[in-house]
Amino acid sequence: QWTAEEKAAIASVWAQVDVEADGQETLARVLIVFPWTQRYFSTFGDLSSAAAISSNPKVRAHGQKVLSALAGAVHHLDNIKHTLAKLSELHADTLHVDPQNFQLLGNCLVIVLARKLGAAFTPEVHAAWEKFLAVSCAALSKHYH
Ligand code: ZNH
């Protein structure tokens, strides 16, 4: 279901992603912009201000973990559902994360990428990336009943 252009766009953006720095910024934005998401991270220590969130080492480590997991989807575009199946189970059955949060994270990632890539984040690249995130969010939401 991917065109050659979409595949190329997703790969070229991913080649410029720094999973640690961009993961940190993405997760920090989720926690700052949508503060109710903080409730899932009660073990992460101080999340009391934007500055605290942005310098929190657990936020950084977890952002990296999340983007590294997305890398699996990037590298298996034709099999995203299967690639993210175990994580879907974990978020549904164990972590009880409301699947709407996956979209919030996707939106923040798009903002991080757009800011980082500037003019290179063309509408076509943006479209391919939105599609990739929609498919990934759907895969992560698969195991919720
Ligand atoms: Zn999540 C965890 C991925 C989103 C919440 N995650 C996790 C992990 C991973 C992930 C890989 C690890 C696992 C293990 O350890 O085994 N996520 C992910 C992805 C995404 C996500 C890929 C998208 C895209 N999450 C999310 C959100 C939220 C979450 C949005 C909320 C808001 N997670 C979570 C939690 C956890 C996780 C809470 C656990 C943490 C700890 O404990 O450390």
From TrEMBL:
PANTHER family: HEMOGLOBIN FAMILY MEMBER, HEMOGLOBIN SUBUNIT EPSILON. The keyword Transport applies. Gene3D superfamilies: Globins. Keywords: Heme, Iron, Metal-binding, Oxygen transport, Transport. One of its GO terms (cellular component) is haptoglobin-hemoglobin complex. This is Globin domain-containing protein. Residues 1-145 form the Globin domain. It holds the Pfam family Globin. GO terms for molecular function: haptoglobin binding; heme binding; metal ion binding; organic acid binding; oxygen binding; oxygen carrier activity; peroxidase activity. It comes from the Eukaryota. GO terms for biological process: hydrogen peroxide catabolic process. InterPro entries: Globin (IPR000971), Globin-like_sf (IPR009050), Globin/Proto (IPR012292), Hemoglobin_b (IPR002337), Hemoglobin_oxygen_transport (IPR050056). The keyword Heme applies. Belongs to the globin family.
